[in-house]
Amino acid sequence: MKNIVLFASGSGSNVENIVRYFQDNSKINISAVLSNKKDAKVLDRCNNLKINALYFNRNAFYATECVLDILKTFNPDLIVLAGFLWKIPENLIAAFPDKIVNIHPALLPKYGGKGMYGNNVHEAVRANNETETGITIHYVNENYDEGAVIRQVKTSVSADDTPESIARKVHELEYEYFPKVIAQLLEVE
Ligand code: GRF
């Protein structure tokens, strides 16, 4: 049995998609979802999905070993950031080398770094008249969006795409590929 812990800050549609993808897989256990946002929609989704969810604040994350201690109790094989907006502190990266992965809604190294999240990314892709965008699934290191790339998938951007339609295309790629890449990393497929 492989244990997955997810981190999310927002809506959690990727979390829900991953949970549903693995719900009939006896080799995967979703141990918990951890969130830094008390009112994040992902916490409601977890309740409906009957998945453990925990909230932590900035102090717990950056000034104590509290989140590290909680993570250790889950013995995670993989820690998955699915729309998690805070930078991961070094104590967590050191404790789980090559076990933390993130999804970014663009083709890194383009449109990465601080402030490049959510619609900011899709608006920048639109403003620069890109002809393609996509997703990047990568390992997490101490810098935003700079760890080794595991998988990138592209989609085309046409002249009449809006940031909203680009976001929809990117989300579709996320839903299709993120669970599959997680399964490959954990060797359960
Ligand atoms: C996704 O686009 C993901 O790539 C990014 O944050 C977004 C999260 O969306 N890191 P959701 O909360 O899963 O709906």
TrEMBL record:
Q: What is its EC number?
A: 2.1.2.2
Provide an example Pfam family for this protein. Answer: Formyl_trans_N
Record-linked CDD domains: FMT_core_GART
- Which residues are recorded as binding N(1)-(5-phospho-beta-D-ribosyl)glycinamide? G12, S13, N14
Which SUPFAM superfamilies does the record associate with it?
Formyltransferase
Gene symbol? purN
By what name is this protein known? Phosphoribosylglycinamide formyltransferase
Question: Active site located where?
Answer: H104
Asked if Hydrolase is a keyword of the record, the answer is: no
Residues marked Raises pKa of active site His (site): D145
Q: Which reaction does it catalyse?
A: N(1)-(5-phospho-beta-D-ribosyl)glycinamide + (6R)-10-formyltetrahydrofolate = N(2)-formyl-N(1)-(5-phospho-beta-D-ribosyl)glycinamide + (6S)-5,6,7,8-tetrahydrofolate + H(+)
At the highest ranks, the source species' classification is: Bacteria, Pseudomonadati, Bacteroidota, Flavobacteriia, Flavobacteriales
Role according to the record: Catalyzes the transfer of a formyl group from 10-formyltetrahydrofolate to 5-phospho-ribosyl-glycinamide (GAR), producing 5-phospho-ribosyl-N-formylglycinamide (FGAR) and tetrahydrofolate.
Residue ranges occupied by any Formyl transferase N-terminal domain in the UniProt entry: 2-182
Q: Which residues cross the membrane?
A: none
| Similarity comment text for this entry | Belongs to the GART family.
Binding positions for (6R)-10-formyltetrahydrofolate per the UniProt entry: R58, N102
The source organism is: Zobellia uliginosa
